[in-house]
Design a protein that fits this description.
alpha/beta; Rossmann fold; SIR2/SIRT2 'Small Domain'; six-stranded parallel sheet; three-stranded antiparallel sheet; elongated; binds zinc ion
Amino acid sequence: MKQQLEEIIHQVYRKEKRNLFTFLTGAGISSDSGIPTYRGIDGIWVKGTQFHKPEEFGTLRYFRQHPEEVWQYALFRKKMFENAAPNESHFELAEIEGMLKDRFHLVTQNIDNLHRRAGSTRLYEIHGNNREIKCSNGCKGIIGLPEEVKGKNIDEDLTEREIELLTCPDCGHWMRPNILWFDEYYDEKTNKKFSALKVAKNSGVLFIAGTSGATNLPLAIAETALKYGAYIVDINTEDNHFTELIKNKKNKLIIRERSTEVFVVIKEIIKNLNKDLM
Ligand SMILES: [Zn+2]
């Protein structure tokens, strides 16, 4: 695995164009931090709302019918995210970014803020994030979640003051978390759709870790990278939608190991780049 990674990284590093090192991460990266995946049997949507599947509960449609319940749940998750700490995988990526600087990009499906807390900055949060809110009725503008609105336990109700803070000052409808729900489409303003695809187009290699490619933008990112000649490195514990996409392609490397260990190897290769390539 190390030798193949080395060949790919050296080759991309020497390229003059389309030479970005892009990482695409998903829920699997945060599971070592104790954050369950959405769709898994222990998915946090399922845990919080025993009667609903995530695809039903995590929708704008459901929010319109039950805004308080969805907010209670969002604030429960906020507390869970705040109590979690970034793990080795997050820190390794932040270190790799520190070495590659502008040639590094990180596209994440996670909304838990752990990449940022570990120090990553060249970040595209394509499923939005929990720190921001916007009007559910379509008024423009995305603002920070007010400080006064704190994380909650699963059975805690919203206070009157919180309901006031979560009301759109312009039209009086509910504000909502700035995250992508299952019945919504990716766009640039909230999801960085076009920026992420542009990064994919200019990538020399796309490392995919902790995500199975169950939604369409991550898959489109991989397809775009492939189309413009990038290598795809699939770092996951089992086969997934990305594996399906690349299995008959030449520019690929499939690694069935834990992401943390693979990131350490990648970091070492990058650390020695200048020495090895002289
Ligand atoms: Zn509004």
